[in-house]
Amino acid sequence: MAKSQDPGAGLTAFHGARHAHTRCVGRALTRAEALCRRRGARLTYMRRRVLELIWDSHKAVKAYDLLDRLSESEKSVRPPTVYRALEFLMAHGLVHRVDSLNAFVGCSGSDEQHNAQFLICQECGEVSEMDGAAIGKAVARQAAEAGFNLRRQTVELHGECPACATR
Amino acid sequence: MAKSQDPGAGLTAFHGARHAHTRCVGRALTRAEALCRRRGARLTYMRRRVLELIWDSHKAVKAYDLLDRLSESEKSVRPPTVYRALEFLMAHGLVHRVDSLNAFVGCSGSDEQHNAQFLICQECGEVSEMDGAAIGKAVARQAAEAGFNLRRQTVELHGECPACATR
DNA sequence: ATCGGATTGTTATAATATAACATTCTTACG
DNA sequence: CGTAAGAATGTTATATTATAACAATCCGAT
Ligand SMILES: [Zn+2]
Ligand SMILES: [Zn+2]
Ligand SMILES: [Zn+2]
Ligand SMILES: [Zn+2]
């Protein structure tokens, strides 16, 4: 499945400047609500607020930037509040941590738990999540060959997105 | 080449407790010296010292642990000193940063510049560097398909090393 | 209504990393 | 040699990222 070529539905699409981003946000929030309802988890005001802020763009966001932006609307928010929200969102697969950036990005995948890979544009900062089956398999095979019991993978690819590459 | 099965020469070998680690250290230092000589770079006392400490084990080492250990022998060493040494060693491909651990590990590769992948044991902390051509190719292909101009890859696989897995 | 667990608030601090400028060391050259 | 320029290190301060510990509050179930 998902072998379609139509732009917008691609697995590894970058979004660039002008696109109907409201839809991206809407989709993410809808998914979060559904997923939390199904699991009996509480998508509280603060958690939803953090998720919205993360989805403000397709870039990875730093925890302390979230903190600043939250403090604009709510009254002074402290680090633990943000980190707890992030912890919750990550535990439920709604947000990923990008280790090589110390930053967080909304999960644009669909299935519940997945090992995501990321394409990270060094120019514009946009992050695109892939579910690269090919990479996943190559990784799994190499690990197996080394007698390694694979649990979790961090695959973060840095370079230039299509838009920035052709500039 | 390098299709041999003899332990110690494998591309993805974990080392475990008892092995002739002096040789690992010796090899690393010899390589560092040769490489620096070739490039006209200066492997100063501090840089060599940091490299030795990193090679004290096959685990990834935290910058502040290096700091502490340096401060035992030399008189109080400060963060910039360590980070500068690390910066130099990384610039010359003698040390890698493991982003998912905020830690540093000696490069056990042989060729000059390479995109390494790491197997990281969650139990014993040992890190094994791979030059997984298969992974590298899968990654390159996926990036190309997305129109992405790949510059650098972070591939860090967490799990259990052979020794810890069979325990 | 109220109890218990989950969530958030609050204060403090740990852990990781860099900026900026002073000092010392090395090397090349006169 | 002596010395000047650049490289490396020392030093002080601070930025950035993250967590510990305990108090207050919220919220749903009885
Ligand atoms: Zn969007
Ligand atoms: Zn870009
Ligand atoms: Zn060894
Ligand atoms: Zn192990």
Layout of helices and strands:
The structure is a homodimer of 167-residue chains.
Chain A: H1 21-39, H2 45-54, H3 63-73, H4 79-91, E1 95-98, E2 103-106, E3 117-121, E4 127-130, H5 133-145, E5 149-160, H6 162-165
Parallel strand pairs in A: 3-5
Antiparallel strand pairs in A: 1-2, 3-4
Helix pairs in contact in A: 2-4, 3-4
The structure holds zinc ion (4 copies).
Chain B binds a DNA duplex (30 and 30 nucleotides) through residues 42, 44, 46-47, 62-64, 77-81, 83-84, 88, 102.
Low-pLDDT parts of chain A are 1-10
Helix content bin of chain A: 40-55%
CATH class of chain A: Mainly Alpha
Instruction: Indicate the structural class of chain A.
Output: alpha+beta
CATH superfamily of chain A: Winged helix-like DNA-binding domain superfamily/Winged helix DNA-binding domain
What does this structure look like?
Two copies of one chain form a homodimer. Chain A has 167 residues and is of the alpha+beta class. The first copy, chain A, has a single domain (21-165), classed as Orthogonal Bundle (Arc Repressor Mutant, subunit A). Helix content of chain A is 42%, strand content 17%. The first copy, chain A, has six helices and five strands; from the N terminus they run ααααββββαβα. Chain A has helices spanning 21-39, 45-54, 63-73, 79-91, 133-145, 162-165; strands at residues 95-98, 103-106, 117-121, 127-130, 149-160. In chain A, the strands form two sheets. A three-stranded mixed β-sheet of chain A has the order 4-3-5. In chain A, strands 1-2 form a two-stranded antiparallel sheet. In chain A, a hairpin with a 4-residue loop joins strand 1 (95-98) and strand 2 (103-106). In chain A, helix 2 (45-54) crosses helix 4 (79-91). Chain A is globular. The model of chain A is unreliable at 1-10 (pLDDT under 50). The interface between A and B is large, with 40 and 39 residues. Strand 5 (149-160) of chain A pairs antiparallel with strand 5 (149-160) of chain B. The structure holds zinc ion (4 copies). One zinc ion binds at residues 121, 123-124, 126, 160-161, 163-164 of chain B. Chain B binds a DNA duplex (30 and 30 nucleotides) through residues 42, 44, 46-47, 62-64, 77-81, 83-84, 88, 102.
